[in-house]
Amino acid sequence: MARLVVLLRGINIGSRNRISMPELREALEGIGYEDVRTYLQSGNVVLTSTASAKKVARDCEGLIADHLGLEIAVVARTRTELAKVVDRNPLARLAKDPKRYQVSFLETKPSAKIVRELEDVAADNEEVVSIGREIYAWHPAGVARSKLWAKLAGKNLGVTATARNWTTVTKLLELAYAD
Questions:
Q1: 89 and 101 in contact (C-beta within 8 Å)?
Q2: Of 3, 50, 79, 91, which has the fewest beta carbons less than 10 angstroms from its beta carbon?
Q3: Which is it for the CA torsion 95, 140, 113, 133, positive or negative?
Q4: Between 53-63 and 21-30, two packed helices, what is the crossing angle to 10 degrees?
Q5: Residue 136 burial (CB count, 10 A)
Q6: Regarding the domain with residue range 2-80, which homologous superfamily does it belong to in the CATH classification?
């Protein structure tokens, strides 16, 4: 059995794609996942399973579609993979405000073309680093007017992706290690 972190894209923002975390936990337990915990209302789940992260992501997408009638993209990482994301922390020297430091979790590694486009659109004070299936982005002025954030949050990366701020990333890792 392995601990996995499951990240739902774009839920509970305004009035669309509303998902109750207690209902989601109950539904996931109902299909056999164990130790299901959620964090915040933005689609962060930690659970235990024998299945691969990719299978858990697909199962969650199917469950949400069948049970809740919503088409929600899901990305999952094992606890070990998430620990590596935190250990890498390539922007630690710059990113001092964890709310303005984002990690985008992608289903697959982005193309070199997409990475170049992200680097090109970043403002002078922003930084972006792509490592494997994660893109780390530092937005010192916030994300509200950031062209980099708009590109990362959009659906033009050519791959399923969802982002979390550094506070959430580290809290999810902590939950993944909790008993």
A1: no
A2: 50
A3: positive
A4: 120
A5: 22
A6: SP0830-like domains (3.30.70.1280)
Predicted structure pTM score:
0.95
Token pair, residue 153, equals 């949050």
Contact 4, 56 (CB under 8 A): yes
CATH of domain 82-177: 3.30.70
Phi, psi of 33, rounded to the nearest 5 degrees:
-75, 150
Q: What are the backbone dihedrals phi and psi of residue 171, each rounded to the nearest 5 degrees, phi first?
A: -65, -40
The answer to whether 46 and 3 are in contact (CB under 8 A) is yes
Distance CA 6, CA 38 (A): 9
- Tens digit of each residue's pLDDT (9 = 90 or more) over 115-141: 999 999 999 999 999 999 999 999 999
Distances (CA, A) of 38 to 8, 76, 128, 160: 11, 14, 28, 21
Instruction: Answer yes or no: are the C-beta atoms of 103 and 162 closer than 8 Å.
Output: no
Burial environment of residue 110 by CB neighbours within 10 A (0 to 12, 13 to 18, 19 or more): buried
* Alpha helices for 10-124 (secondary structure H): 21-30, 53-63, 79-88, 112-121
Domain ranges of the chain: 2-80, 82-177
